[in-house]
């Protein structure tokens, strides 16, 4: 089996001062990547900030013989995103890999959600990924190579009580990655999404008895693969938790069609709901064109 290495590669890992991000930064550096360890150093709800977190991970990487620089910028502003990418280019000459991992939580039931809680979460997770990825994408496009890993969550992809802001931001990242995968294809850029579950400070109180089997290091192998040259998959979503890795996908069922010239009523929809919802024979479209292609073949009979 060919060994996966990152020799000559430059990686940005956001939110790498602790939790999952730290494990990615350490592993990529161990495999030869030059790493920008970005972290604001704030609390779980995004307040505060101190440089120690990112610096500590840089120190760990250097102590193990690797190369890394810290970045203390927030991903949540366009200037912060630009500055993180500039740190990579100024320090190491380019960017090959971006792991969008920085995150915060402001959980509240929908009726109680404040606009501050909405903005804070969208700014870090969704807009933050835009702000870091766009300047990096431009560099990658010029170099004809790039790997993006976006961090979504089962909370958005499948749903979870009390996380409308977080779930919406995380599902938004799926759309962002899908389109980067399409736009980056010709330039050798791959983009994928992970939905991790791991025992970190973010989830400490939620995971119960299984926490000891959900070390962040068990998510790292999938992220390392997706960030590597060996990764030939793009436009996909993966669940990663406890050492189990599984594809997650959005499928399109064959559905129900009333026939040419038939104008369906709401009652037709009700009567045919079982067929509309039937999953047998689904496809997994990878573009709007795939969906329209399936529609055209139905309309053409
Ligand atoms: N742990 C899980 O089970 C789980 C599940 C689903 C998704 N996730 C996602 O995985 C990612 C990592 O989470 P974690 O569990 O390691 O939590 P964590 O709190 O340990 O790590 C998040 C890191 O992001 C940093 N950060 C926050 N705002 C930032 C900003 N504006 N700019 C730069 N850095 C910032 C924090 O300082 C922190 O070090 C997050 O995006 C989270 O939403 C985690």
Outline of the structure:
It contains 10 helices and 8 strands.
Write a concise keyword list for the protein shown above.
301 residues; alpha/beta; Rossmann fold; binds nicotinamide-adenine-dinucleotide
Overview of the molecule:
The protein has two domains: about 240 residues, NAD(P)-binding Rossmann-like Domain (Rossmann fold, 3-Layer(aba) Sandwich); about 50 residues, Orthogonal Bundle (Helix Hairpins). The longest helix has 29 residues. It has an eight-stranded mixed β-sheet with strand order 3-2-1-4-5-6-7-8, with helices on both faces. Helix 3 runs parallel beside helix 4 and helix 4 runs parallel beside helix 6. The termini are far apart. The model has no long low-confidence stretch (mean pLDDT about 95). Strand 6, helix 7 and strand 7 form a beta-alpha-beta unit. About 40% of the residues lie in helices and about 15% in strands. By secondary structure, it is of the alpha/beta class. Nicotinamide-adenine-dinucleotide binds next to helix 1, helix 4 and strand 6.
CATH architect. name of the largest domain:
3-Layer(aba) Sandwich
Share of helical residues? 40-55%
Q: Rg to the nearest angstrom?
A: 21 Å
Briefly note the structural class of the backbone. alpha/beta
Q: Name the ligand types.
A: nicotinamide-adenine-dinucleotide
> What top-tier CATH class of the largest domain fits best?
Alpha Beta
Uncertain parts:
none
Taking the sheet with the most strands, its summary is: 8 strands, mixed
Q: Give average pLDDT, whole number.
A: 96
- In the CATH hierarchy, the third-tier topology of the largest domain is known as Rossmann fold
Number of domains: 2
What is the beta-strand fraction?
A: 5-15%
Query: N-to-C terminal Cα separation, in Å?
Result: 47 Å
Q: How is the largest sheet built, in terms of strand order? A: 3-2-1-4-5-6-7-8
Q: CATH superfamily of the largest domain, called what?
A: NAD(P)-binding Rossmann-like Domain
Overall morphology: globular
Order of helices and strands: EHEHEHEHEHHEHEEHHH
Number of helices: 10
């Amino acid at each position: 089996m060919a060994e996966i290495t990152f020799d000559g590669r430059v990686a940005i890992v956001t939110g790498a001062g602790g939790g999952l991000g730290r494990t990615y930064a350490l592993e990529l550096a161990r495999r030869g990547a030059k790493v920008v360890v970005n972290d604001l150093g704030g609390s779980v709800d995004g307040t505060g900030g101190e440089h120690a977190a990112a610096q500590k991970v840089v120190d760990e990487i250097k102590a193990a013989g690797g190369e890394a620089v810290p970045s203390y910028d927030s991903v949540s502003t366009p200037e912060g995103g630009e500055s993180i990418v500039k740190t990579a280019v100024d320090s190491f000459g380019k960017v090959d890999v971006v792991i969008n991992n920085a995150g915060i939580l402001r959980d509240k039931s929908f009726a109680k959600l404040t606009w501050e809680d909405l903005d804070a979460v969208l700014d870090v997770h969704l807009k933050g990924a835009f702000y870091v990825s766009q300047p990096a994408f431009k560099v990658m496009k010029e170099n004809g190579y790039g790997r993006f890993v976006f961090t979504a969550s089962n909370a958005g992809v499948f749903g979870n009580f009390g996380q409308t802001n977080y779930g919406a931001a995380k599902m938004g990242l799926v759309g962002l990655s899908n389109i980067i995968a399409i736009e980056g294809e010709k330039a050798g850029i791959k983009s994928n999404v992970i939905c991790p579950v791991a025992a970190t400070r973010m989830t400490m109180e939620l995971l119960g008895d299984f926490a000891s089997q959900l070390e962040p290091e068990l998510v790292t192998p999938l992220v390392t693969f997706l960030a590597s040259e060996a990764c030939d998959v793009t436009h996909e979503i993966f669940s990663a938790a406890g050492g189990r890795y599984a594809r997650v996908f959005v499928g399109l069922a064959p559905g129900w069609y009333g026939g040419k010239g038939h104008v369906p009523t709401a009652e037709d929809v009700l009567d045919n709901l079982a067929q509309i919802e039937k999953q047998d024979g689904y496809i997994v479209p990878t573009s709007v064109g795939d969906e329209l292609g399936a529609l055209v073949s139905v309309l053409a009979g």
